[in-house]
Structure formats: C-alpha cells, structure tokens
Amino acid sequence: MASVRHVLVAEDEALAALAIQQYLTFKGFRVTVARDGMEALSLFEADPADAVVTDLRMPRLDGARLIRRLREARPDLPVLVMTGYLGSEDGQEDLTSPAWEPLVVLKKPVSPQDILAALHGFSV
Question: How many domains does the chain have?
Fold first, then answer.
C-alpha cells in the first residue's frame, strides 16, 4: 500500500470536519470533505482518495454503509472511523471483525493528532 496523500473526510459536524481538514492540510495532505455518506460516495467516484475518515452516524448514508459501498470498488481502502456511539446498541455494526480491515476505530472526541497517527499507520 502506498502512503496516504489524499484523504476523504465524511463528517456531518461542520466544525469537526473543518478542524480535521485544516490540520491535515497543514500536515501536507490533500483533503476532501463530505457532509454525509452520499456526498462522500459521489466525491470518491469523481476523485478517489487514498484513505477515508468517516463518522458512523450521518444523514442519508451512515458510515458503515459508506464503507461497504467504497470497499466494493477498493477492498483494501484504509478507513478511519470516528464515533461517539461504540457499544451494544441495536443494529450497531461489529467493526472489530477482520472483514473490516484495514480499519481503525477511534471514539469521539478525537484529536487531529490521533487522526494523523492513524493515517500514518496505514502507510507502508
């Protein structure tokens, strides 16, 4: 796997998305931001990213379904999930399964430094 240069961020919280975008851009990444899963799919099709940073709970298309759809085309796509809702909720995806790899799950609140470290972990 090549190093991550272009990151797609799917996050419906505008301030969180902006903070991530600004930090990663400052650190040398090209960052594309989507407000929900449907927009993320469209942006990815137009300009594929090297990695995806996504929230789980978003309007129109949630993070788990977004990951499944993206992985249909790119099974090895590195994904970082940020969520405040890990646990035993009804219908909650088991993101710890090896079937989701390569995947990192971080519980919100997530610092930009944690995101950067995870993205560097995807690089070879």
Answer: 1
Q: Tell me the mean pLDDT per 10 residues along the chain, length 124.
A: 81 94 96 97 96 92 92 92 66 56 84 93 68
Domain that holds residue 31: 6-122
Cα separation, 24 vs 75, whole angstroms = 24
**This prediction's pTM:** 0.87
CATH code assigned at 85: 3.40.50.2300
Contact 17, 63 (CB under 8 A): no
Return all residues near 80 (Cβ < 8 A) that are at least 6 apart. 51, 52, 53, 54, 103, 104, 105, 106, 115, 118, 119
Backbone angles phi, psi at 49, to 5 degrees: -100, 160
Domain membership flag for residue 53: yes
Q: DSSP assignment, residue 95?
A: T
